[in-house]
Specification:
The structure is a single chain. This protein is an alpha/beta fold. The protein is built from 12 helices and 12 strands. The longest helix has 18 residues. The protein is elongated and about 60 Å long.
């Protein structure tokens, strides 16, 4: 029989040799990220995927060293508050809050005790999430999707040179929606174009609200209002039935039937948000990170639904489009 001491020596030598030849791969410490969104729709879903992908690419793998939980408030502000309280009680490393109502709920519940990274929030200062777009201390930062409203108006008037009145359905209870509508009104009125609004406090109110615009407007414009976007098919139906072209603030709505949209890629916004989350997980203080905006936009058009709405794009506009849906 072999001497046990000799076997032990061989085993130790083999382990040391293997460790030298095959050094251990550094693993990120286990972290917990809770993610909440006011509602599920393609744009916000893309944000969530972008965050998750960036974390995964940087060593945080779900089921290995990343505890990841997502909950949707299904468009209900009250549920958003309940989710926020639950998440805060579980004391995660970071809470990611997608869209203004969920971000407001998370910040109110955390009260500075947990880092909050928001995403797809139009005006974080007006929403009272942060004091300034610049790093202002505290535990909150994120990525804004403030829309290029002047470019959106230009898109509509380029497609419809004779448009005099634009209809905008919106949820008056959603801070980002109110900010966008007020700013869009100012810009449009400075160009001599009238804006007519229609109130839709919930997704179930969207169809009726949009129908109220028929006979009053030359075009319908939908911002990144989560309530309206969650029921976007209702807007498209009215646009087709009444022959009123529908324009959108997010490109994801084009495949759902908008005639055209000039917007951000929300997956890219998610990746940008994911990088902020990564910085926080790796030790940065959220309040020391500036709130970020997005500048790059893409034009998407839908030739099929545009035609159904009585609109034909000129060849030059089609050539400008980054994506054309037939």
């Amino acid at each position: 029989m072999f001497n046990k001491k000799i076997l032990g020596a061989f085993a130790t030598a083999a382990y040391i040799g293997a460790s030298t030849l095959f050094p251990a791969v550094a693993q990120a410490d286990s972290k917990t990220v809770k993610i909440t969104a006011i509602v599920e729709h393609p744009a916000l879903d893309a944000v969530r995927k972008g965050v998750k992908d960036v974390l995964g690419e940087n060593g945080y793998k779900v089921g290995e060293n990343l505890n990841w939980e997502f909950q949707s408030a299904q468009g209900d502000v009250g549920i958003a508050g309940q989710i926020a309280k639950k998440f805060v009680g579980e004391n995660p490393d970071v809470i990611v809050a997608i869209a203004t109502p969920s971000a407001q709920a998370a910040v109110a519940s955390a009260r500075g005790t947990i880092p909050i990274v928001f995403s797809a929030v139009t005006d974080p200062v007006a929403a009272k999430l942060v004091k300034s777009w610049k790093a202002s201390g505290g535990s909150v930062t994120g990525v804004s999707d403030m829309l290029p409203l002047e470019k959106h108006l230009q898109l509509i008037t380029d497609a419809l040179p004779n448009a005099k009145t634009i209809g905008v359905p919106y949820n008056p209870g959603e801070t980002n929606a109110v900010v966008l509508v007020e700013n869009f009104k100012k810009i449009a009125e400075s160009k001599g174009i009238n804006v007519v609004t229609a109130s839709a406090p919930s997704s179930g109110d969207v169809l009726m609200a949009v129908r109220s615009l028929v006979g009053k407007v030359d075009a319908i414009y939908v911002t990144t209002d989560n309530t309206i976007v969650s029921a976007f098919e209702s807007v498209v139906k009215v646009g087709i039935d009444a022959q009123i072209p529908v324009f959108a603030g997010d490109t994801g709505s084009v495949e759902r039937g908008a005639a055209a949209a000039l917007g951000f890629d929300y997956y890219d916004i998610g990746r940008q948000t994911g990088q902020v989350v990564l910085d926080v997980l790796n030790g940065k203080t959220a309040g020391d990170i500036d709130v970020q905006g997005v500048e790059k936009t893409n034009l998407h058009i839908n030739l099929g639904t545009a035609k159904q709405m009585g609109l034909t794009f000129d060849e030059q506009m089609v050539k400008k489009a980054a994506k054309v849906v037939e």
